[in-house]
Design brief:
The chain has 435 residues and is of the alpha/beta class. The strands form three sheets. It has a five-stranded parallel beta sheet with strand order 2-1-3-4-5, sandwiched between helices. Strands 6-9 form a two-stranded antiparallel sheet. A two-stranded antiparallel sheet has the order 7-8. α4 links the parallel β4 and β5.
Length: 435
């Protein structure tokens, strides 16, 4: 299941016939099968009879509300993406719909045609990712069973042993390759959840990852340590997914005491989320401590010095630098590159580890020199490799920004770009700074 080829079906549920007609006309030029229903009960019958990729439902309908309908729909078809449409601002209702019906997004009436088209396209892509992950999980389970069967046959006759071992090794290589791909896909899907919460969080995570990996390499850490740091940096804010956006992007000095307490729980939530996956336990430990400071002034546990794992010390610096220079998180006003560098260097030995800051300074000054002095050139996707620096944003034709100018390319980003290109063309050629 490398590419999803089946034509998608979109179900629209509303008790007003004119709205059903308007939305149906809106999607005439899209390659979807569009079904309509005038009530929640009719909609449930359509779900039982068809393979629905995405549902758009009005929130207020007689007999069965949109919230109740979406909750029942989620039980019949759990993977179907659900979108709620409301004609009024009702935060409690939206939260109720998200909790009960596992709503992907909500739309306010009156809607804007282009925005709803983009939302549906994004929802369909989300559905395809879920289906692909389900397929890979099932394939892994199937091949794990094959592996167990192979192990039972290892005690056959001596003259057959050589042939069996050869066959077993071939199958093991195939199985481990699938398992590794499944693991990478799991990381991508978790990151996608973060991007769905807010695009700024996803972009911040990718910039922090690029910088953290460069620092780790400069510090001569092992490949295994660098891989754990890369995963932890990508997912360091995963604990924020279920937190209200008004807390995440509110200035720190405007947060109430209770809101600060909630915000400071995100490393613990992130740790618990990742620790449930065996291969992410090291990354989970890094995520838990990425807001700790070596003088004990951090959170959540006020750890000191060597009690903080190296990966967390690295992400602490990369995370702080990006927040200072991008200004995209928690209402921070962005400052100049040199000012941010000076701020971090001034906290060497107090907030931040001295060795980490030394490597950070070396790496970040080199990146700055590249972006200032070097010429730009166009590259094909096949030419992309780790360490390249983008000289312009990479965007799809529908306006989705995959990476931003000055982002440092890593393997996860390359995989993501290739995945998107299979679905949609890029808006402009990819350009990087020459070495």
């Amino acid at each position: 299941m490398e590419n999803y080829t089946e034509k998608h079906t979109v179900l629209i549920v509303d008790d007003e016939q004119n709205i059903l007609k308007s939305l149906s006309r809106l999607f005439e030029d899209e390659e979807y099968n569009v079904l309509t229903a005038l009530s929640g009960s009719e909609g449930l019958e359509e779900i039982k009879s068809n393979n629905i990729s995405l549902i758009i439902s009005d929130s207020r309908m007689p007999q069965m509300s949109g919230i109740d309908f979406l909750e029942k729909a989620s039980k019949i078809s759990p993977d179907t993406v659900r979108v709620m449409m409301t004609g009024f601002t009702d935060i409690d209702g939206v939260i109720d719909a998200i909790n009960k019906g596992q709503v992907y997004r909500y739309i306010e009436k009156p809607w804007k045609d282009e925005e709803i088209k983009i939302l549906v396209r994004d929802g369909i892509k989300h559905y395809e990712l879920l289906e692909q992950n389900k397929y890979l999980t099932q394939l892994t389970m199937k091949q794990n069973t094959e592996l167990k069967d192979l192990n039972k046959n290892l005690e056959k006759k001596v003259e057959e042993r050589a042939r069996i071992i050869i066959e077993k090794n071939i199958k093991l290589e195939q199985i481990f390759e699938v398992l590794d791909k499944s693991f990478v896909e799991t990381i991508r899907i978790i990151l996608k959840v973060l991007e769905i919460k807010d695009e700024k969080l996803g972009a911040h995570a990718k910039r922090v990852t690029s910088l953290a990996v460069l620092i780790a390499k400069d510090m001569k850490l092992s490949e295994e340590e660098i891989r754990d740091i890369e995963i932890a940096a990508l997912l360091h804010d995963i604990g924020k997914v279920n937190m209200p956006s008004f807390i995440l992007f509110k200035k720190n000095d405007l947060l109430t005491i209770d809101q600060r307490v909630i915000l400071k729980q995100h490393p613990i939530i992130g740790n618990l989320t990742l620790a449930a996956i065996d291969r992410l336990k090291n990354a989970a430990e890094i995520v838990l401590s990425h807001h700790e400071r070596i003088d004990g002034s951090g959170y959540p546990y006020k750890k000191f010095g060597d009690d903080i794992v190296t990966g967390a010390k690295i992400i602490a610096v990369a995370d702080t630098f990006d927040k200072l220079t991008s200004g995209s998180i928690q209402g921070i006003h962005p400052i100049e590159f040199e000012e941010a560098l000076e701020d971090i260097e001034s906290k060497k030995g107090s907030s931040f580890d001295e060795n980490v800051v030394m490597s950070f300074s070396k790496v970040i000054k080199n990146v700055k020199n590249v972006t200032k002095k070097r010429k730009k050139r166009e590259v094909d996707i096949k030419e992309l490799h780790e360490g390249m620096i983008l000289s312009a944003n990479i965007s799809t034709k529908s306006g989705i920004v995959l990476m931003r100018k000055n982002d440092i390319i890593n393997e996860v980003m390359i995989s993501k770009i290739k995945q998107y290109v299979e679905i949609e063309d890029l808006l402009d050629p990819i350009t990087v700074f020459e070495k």
